[in-house]
Amino acid sequence: MRISIFGATGQVGRQLVRLALYQGHQVKAYGRNIYNAGFQDDDKLELCQGGLFDEDLVKDAVEGSDAVLSVIGGSFDGTDKARSLGMKYIIAAMQKNKVKRIIALGGKGQLDGPEGQMLMDDPEFPEIFLPVSREHLKALQQLTDSGLDWTFICSPDIIDGDPTGHFLTSAHTAPTPDKNRVFSGDLALCMLQELQKNEYLHQRVGISN
Fold it and tell me: Domain residues for 11?
């Protein structure tokens, strides 16, 4: 499969690139500092340098791909609009290139809580995570309105670590038991497995190791 990965130089993005290549996919890895990321030469890997707000470069990075994986990062204080505006440009590029499948990384705050509301709307939700949760929510809303075949992985705390294959997932809510953490490698593995299985089309997904 031909895959475009946005946020390829980040904590999860590096794992995604490595695992996708290991699984035999053709990968377009997109990032501002992609040539400094230390990726090994591979005939199946194409490095695409650019910013998320460059419409033409984003469009070129999506062209010819079968699917998009977005693991866009950024600050937590709400001043960085990469997650929401970046998603806007990615969606537009997918629509122009007629690419339908996208799996994107969000946050745990977009999952449903016990009372049915999103966790980020719970009065006890940590205030420090509200700005980034609002950015993730904007990205999710754009996906739901896009007409694309989307899946939104709502991650808890991400811990650096290679994939173990031992993690739980659940539609729209956190899985049980919920350890409130996931290894970056398992998060990448989950996204690639979803790309193959299409188990959670048009759904938010909780995950935990």
Answer: 2-208
